[in-house]
Amino acid sequence: MNKTRLVLGIEYDGSSFSGWQWQTNQRSVQQVLEQALSKVANHPVTVQCAGRTDTGVHALEQVVHFDVTIERDLHAWMLGGNSNLPDDVRITWVKEAVGDFHARYSAIARFYRYIILNRPIKSALLRKQVTWCHAPLDVEKMHQAAQHLIGKHDFSSFRAQGCQSKSPFRAMYFIDVYREEDKVIIDISANAFLHHMVRNIAGVLMAIGSEKQPVDWTQELLDVKCRKLGGITAPPDGLYLGAVYYPEHYGVGKHPIFDKLPLDAKRHD
Prior knowledge:
alpha+beta
């Protein structure tokens, strides 16, 4: 029986989910997506994602693939899938996979965005979409500190203690910290991320931005390779999986932010 591999882009509000992965007796993004697509396919569907997100973490564009044995118009997958999905998950595009495409293993880079609401009062409207910090943050110091993290490093000080990755080494391609009115935004891209890595980096940069720690603290933490010295893990509310970058021959649309990728990363194309 012939199988067709399809690729989806999906966005979701993670505030009411226990994370991406199926959980017993808990609501997950994978669960509701597979249930919706299985109804369209008329057979069970299992999806593979580019990167699992934790409880409360959102996605601007998660990429998934799945295999089906039934023919449907691509538009029908989007309309049918969305009609069976809850309001906090949406399929934004659908295409047929090219060659040996795999949502996780074909990816060259991931991009995450962390949003901090930096004002004295919490937001009534964005309480699950941003992380609130009342103390004034020095964005220039945060950005300067973040540059120590660029390159291939042992990120042991920035991984969760229960992280199951076999290696603590990751290649950080870029990290930018900037302000938009009362929001401080951290844009960060690497080949892959350790468990809680972005949230731990955000926690360190917030401590530096509020002048609780010096600018060189990021370098010190890289050197000591000890999570216990790495400060707090920032909340999940402000974290978004922004986009995933694949070699161009797969034909999966590239987010403009990946123009910042160094040439050595793009040589995977």
